[in-house]
Amino acid sequence: MALTDAAIDKIKQMIMSGELAPGDRLPRETDLAERLGLSRNSLREAVRALALINVLDVRQGDGTFVTSLQPHLLLEAMSFVVDFHRDDTVLQFLEVRRVLEPAATAMAAVHMSEAEVAELRLILDDLPDGPSVTELVANDLRFHKHIAAGSGNPVLCSLIDSLSGPTTRARVWRGLTQEGALEKTREQHVAICDAIAARNPEVARAWATVHVAGVEEWLRRTL
């Protein structure tokens, strides 16, 4: 194991054991390096690496702290990698969405409060009659993000959110080129919302699967 990897592993173990909790400040560099049996250079490289993936927060003049370790922070690094996708991988992202979004939608049917369901209805109502493709896609993103948040699982919500970017262009393509895409999207959103409001997770799951699979099927034919 490389020295930097060993240093990363030792800091990770301190966090996992509870010795360092979210928000805690790390000991002084000299003290921590001596305690862990590391060189100061190896420790610095480990701190830089862990800061890049939002495990540590280096505050100039104040010290180095463990972040909140919230899922949305830790998954930002994945979002960065996802942004460099190629067009021919969009189908793979859609396949992952087809696995995750129906599960999140089924969970939302169980966990969303009445106020959150009402807000989902408002998102649908915000879409004007005869919307542009841009308006439809923006509304679509809001709709699915609200459902993912309503699943009650922050990790699942963050994963779905990180997958939204690569599939946005496919949604726009479909809206521009597929006849009836705007009406179909609106109808499926209403069906998903109705199933969530009725507290019927399996119907909600089924409609979400149909919804995401429709974009995927269209893209396969187009490509």
UniProtKB/TrEMBL annotation:
Cited Pfam families: FCD, GntR
Domain of life, per lineage: Bacteria
This protein's record includes keyword Nucleotide-binding: no
Domain HTH gntR-type stretches: 1-69
Record-given protein name: GntR family transcriptional regulator
SUPFAM superfamilies: GntR ligand-binding domain-like, Winged helix' DNA-binding domain
One term of GO molecular function: DNA binding
Keywords: DNA-binding, Transcription, Transcription regulation
CDD domains per the UniProt record, alphabetical: WHTH_GntR (cd07377)
